[in-house]
TrEMBL record:
<dbReference type="GO" id="GO:0009451">
    <property type="term" value="P:RNA modification"/>
</dbReference>
<dbReference type="InterPro" id="IPR032867">
    <property type="entry name" value="DYW_dom"/>
</dbReference>
<feature type="domain" description="DYW">
    <location>
        <begin position="155"/>
        <end position="245"/>
    </location>
</feature>
<dbReference type="GO" id="GO:0008270">
    <property type="term" value="F:zinc ion binding"/>
</dbReference>
<protein>
    <recommendedName>
        <fullName>DYW domain-containing protein</fullName>
    </recommendedName>
</protein>
<dbReference type="InterPro" id="IPR046960">
    <property type="entry name" value="PPR_At4g14850-like_plant"/>
</dbReference>
<dbReference type="GO" id="GO:0003723">
    <property type="term" value="F:RNA binding"/>
</dbReference>
<dbReference type="Pfam" id="PF14432">
    <property type="entry name" value="DYW_deaminase"/>
</dbReference>
Length: 246
């Protein structure tokens, strides 16, 4: 990323987090007077829209980018749509949120390598990151949003170190990791207190590990997750059997 764009992202991020969204938007427009359009600046602003629940601006940005002839990579396109969908989730408009996700993934599920399986009542379910194939996807993302709000109240902050090179914005990407979708699905499908069993083909990322501990405590459910390296046994007091050595 060019230095000027990095600086721009930083500025947009600072103003955005502070809730000065129109100032952040103006910074982007100012930047564009002397530079080519940089979608990454808008992605940063969309993340701020999520924090401050500004769906109007999010949709404006979404339409501005998706309808323009600016060239977007698949990852940028995904980030824009998923972040906008997250903003709608944050204001409780789960129908609109799901429609946005479905439009993006109507023909193909993005090529993420992480997959989580979970067994409920003898039936196996499979989730990819950002998956929308399950018929109860709306309820699953609704549950994720409820969890997100509760985790933020507990002091949770997304861990940016888990960003892979394909994941542009930490929030949109981590939020839809496959194990979280599987956990959310368990929460809406099984009675309170039921243990959640997960199997993941890769190593669980540190952020999902942290979130799983918090969810186990919050929901008073044990979560047993087998990943590529070991079995994590998350207990109701919010700890993991691996003692975070993983
Ligand atoms: Zn993760
Ligand atoms: Zn663990």
């Amino acid at each position: 990323m060019k230095v000027s764009i990095k600086r721009g992202v930083l500025k947009v991020d600072v103003y955005g987090r502070a809730g000065q969204l129109s100032e952040a938007h103006s910074i982007i427009h100012l930047f564009e007077k002397t530079h080519p359009r940089a979608p990454v600046l808008y992605i940063s602003l969309l993340a701020a829209c999520r924090i401050h629940k500004n769906a109007k601006l999010a949709l404006e940005i979404h339409d501005e980018l998706m309808d323009s002839n600016i060239s977007l990579t698949d990852d940028q396109r995904s980030a824009i749509v998923v972040l906008t969908a997250n903003v709608y989730s944050s204001i409780g408009d789960h129908d609109r949120s799901l429609i946005l996700r479905q439009n993006l993934y109507r023909n193909k599920i993005p090529k993420y390598s992480g997959v989580t399986w979970t067994e409920i009542n003898g039936k196996m379910y499979e989730f990819y990151a950002q998956d929308i194939r399950h018929p109860q996807s709306k309820e699953i993302y609704e549950q994720l949003e409820i969890l997100h709000e509760q985790l933020i109240k507990l002091g949770y902050q997304p861990n940016e170190s888990v960003l892979t090179k394909n994941e542009i914005n930490v929030e949109w990407s981590i939020y839809g990791h496959s194990e979280r979708l599987a956990i959310a699905f368990n929460l809406i499908s099984t009675p309170p207190g039921t243990t959640i069993y997960l199997t993941k083909n890769l190593r669980m990322c540190i952020d999902c590990h942290e979130v799983s501990k918090l969810i186990a405590r919050l929901t008073q459910r044990e979560i047993i997750a087998r990943d590529k390296l070991r079995i994590h046994y998350f207990t109701k007091d919010g700890r993991c059997s691996c003692d975070d050595h993983f």
